[in-house]
Amino acid sequence: MRMFAMMARGAAIGCALALSVAAAAAQQYPNRPIKFVQGFVAGGNADAITRVLGAELSKSLGQPVISEARVGAGGNIAAEQVARGEPDGYTLLLATTAHVVSPALYKKLNYDPVNDFAFISSVTNVPFL
C-alpha cells in the first residue's frame, strides 16, 4: 500500500506539472471542478487509482477532482463519454490496458482510441504475473 501511495503521489505531481503547462497558456486553469472518469466497478483497481490520484490532484490544483465510474463494455463506455466531451482539460480518463485491447475485441468503437485522447501521464503499474 505504501508503494501505491508513493506512485499515486508521483503520478499526481506529474499530472499537475503537465496540467500547469497548459494552465500557463490558458487563463486560470482550473477554475472549476475536474471530472476523472474510469470504466470499471467501484472498489476495483481503476476506482481506487482515480480516487487516490484525484485527491492528490485536488490538493495540487486547488479544485475538486470528482471520480466518476462509467461502467461497462470493458471501459469503452467511459472512453466514449470522454472522447465526445469538450477537450477542455476538465474531463480526464483513466485509460487501462483495456483501452489498448478494445480495438482488437470490438468491430466498431464510437471513438478513436489514439486520436481522440491526449496522453498526460502514466500513473501506475499493476503487474499481473
Number of domains: 1
Shape: globular
Give the strand order of the largest sheet, numbering strands 1, 2, ... along the chain: 2-1-3
Structural class: mainly alpha
Give the overall pLDDT as a whole number: 86
Report the major sheet: 3 strands, parallel
Residues in β-strands, percent:
5-15%
Helix and strand element order = HEHEHEH
N-end to C-end Cα span: 18 Å
Regions with little confidence, pLDDT below 50 for 5+ residues:
none
Q: What CATH architecture do you see?
A: 3-Layer(aba) Sandwich
Percent helix, as a range, is 40-55%
At the fourth CATH level, what is the homologous superfamily? Bordetella uptake gene, domain 1
Assigned CATH class: Alpha Beta
Quaternary: single chain
Query: What would the CATH topology be?
Result: D-Maltodextrin-Binding Protein, domain 2
Work out the helix count: 4
The beta-strand count equals 3
